[in-house]
Amino acid sequence: MKRSKQTYKNVARHCSSYDRTTASELSNCVDEDCTSCLNCSHFAPDEHCILDLYDHIEHGLNQADR
To answer: What is the C-alpha to C-alpha distance for residues 66 and 48, in angstroms, rounded to an integer?
Structure first.
C-alpha cells in the first residue's frame, strides 16, 4: 500500500539504516531536506523496504503520536 510522501519522510528520518541513493534526479536536494524512503537504497521499486524496517518504524511513530 502506498503511503503519503510525508509518511515516507518521517519514517526515513527515524530509520537508522537510511541510505540515500545517489541518483542524478536527487541532485536538486542539496538545499532542502530530501530524506525519504523513496530515495533510500533499501527501498524497492514496488515501494517496500527490503530490510523490512518500514512497518516497525511507522508503527512506532504512530504510537508516539497518541
So the answer is: 25
For 49-62, what is each residue's pLDDT tens digit?
A: 999 999 999 999 98
Q: Is the pTM of this model over 0.85?
A: no
Amino acid at 1: M
Q: In degrees rounded to 5, what are phi and psi of residue 59?
A: -60, -45
Domain limits for position 46: 5-65
pLDDT tens figures, 11-56: 999 999 999 876 545 556 655 578 999 999 999 999 899 999 999 9
Domain count, the chain: 1
- Grid cell in block for residue 6: 510525508
